[in-house]
């Protein structure tokens, strides 16, 4: 918990168990989606678990993604040359939020506002990092998200 006694977003969502349920079910939906399934056709069997660990760290949970995989630079590398589009990005966010509703994850306005803020910010970076010529900053810090985050422009 943070020093103020306010739970982290990670704690509020239900920890790694909730995020694993979310990403597992979400990628089941992705595989059935005509727009997104081609992007994830070659997805590793552990992809959902990796994304859950990444989200956990971003939302204030343990830094296990960084320890195991190399943090944000590793995630950026996964998006290089994927040629993601805005329609794909919007569908990804839409499906993730629909899955959160399906699994009855917290839907209070404060949490959902923070979650949507991160998903919008992060998915837009994924699109930027998937275009030709995008490069990985090996020193890029892991993003962290809280209850009222704002971020400056991406200067990649």
Automatic annotation (TrEMBL):
Keyword Iron found: yes
CDD domains reported in the protein's UniProt record: TrHb2_O-like
Pfam (any one): Bac_globin
Signal peptide: none
Keywords linked to the UniProt accession: Heme, Iron, Metal-binding, Transport
The keyword Transferase appears for this protein: no
Name of the protein in question: Group II truncated hemoglobin
Organism for this UniProt entry: Pelomonas dachongensis
Taxonomic classification: Bacteria, Pseudomonadati, Pseudomonadota, Betaproteobacteria, Burkholderiales
